[in-house]
Amino acid sequence: MNTMTYKGYIGQVTLDEEAGIIHGQVLNTRDIITFQGRTVKQLRKALKDSIEDYLAFCAERGEDPDKPLSGKFVLRINPELHRAVAIAAAREGKSLNKWVAERLEQEVVGFGS
């Protein structure tokens, strides 16, 4: 999966060879935000313009825009698993947060692509 970002919004990009365009949709918002272009430069500008239009539209309506995720979340697990994960992290000389983040990254196909 190819992605681009602007102001924390992540756009997933797809090539449509038949139409000769690259198009995308923002992933990390409930609202639908799309963009397209024929070159990477056009695509970057279209993503920026689409996000700016979205933010302006929300402001005009007096609504808060759907914001990208912060990178923080609370995870509730049973105490035995918590203990086992903490021990595994300590064995590797890592913080619990770093250890868990690395495991999540390994499980997400195409992360950082």
Write the SSE topology.
Layout: E1 2-6, E2 9-16, E3 21-26, E4 34-37, H1 40-61, H2 79-91, H3 96-107
Antiparallel strand pairs: 1-2, 2-3, 3-4
What does this structure look like?
By secondary structure, the chain is α+β, with helices and mostly antiparallel strands. The protein is 42% helix and 20% strand. It has two domains: 60 residues, no CATH class; 35 residues, no CATH class. The radius of gyration is 19 Å and the shape is elongated. It starts with a strand and ends in a 6-residue tail after the last helix. The mean pLDDT is 90.
Structural class: alpha+beta
Q: Output mean pLDDT.
A: 90
Number of domains: 2
Give the tally of β-strands: 4
Please give the order of strands in the largest beta sheet.
Answer: 1-2-3-4
Task: Describe the sheet with the most strands.
Answer: 4 strands, antiparallel
Summarize the structure.
With 113 residues, the chain is α+β, with helices and mostly antiparallel strands.
Quick tags:
113 residues, alpha+beta, 4-stranded antiparallel β-sheet
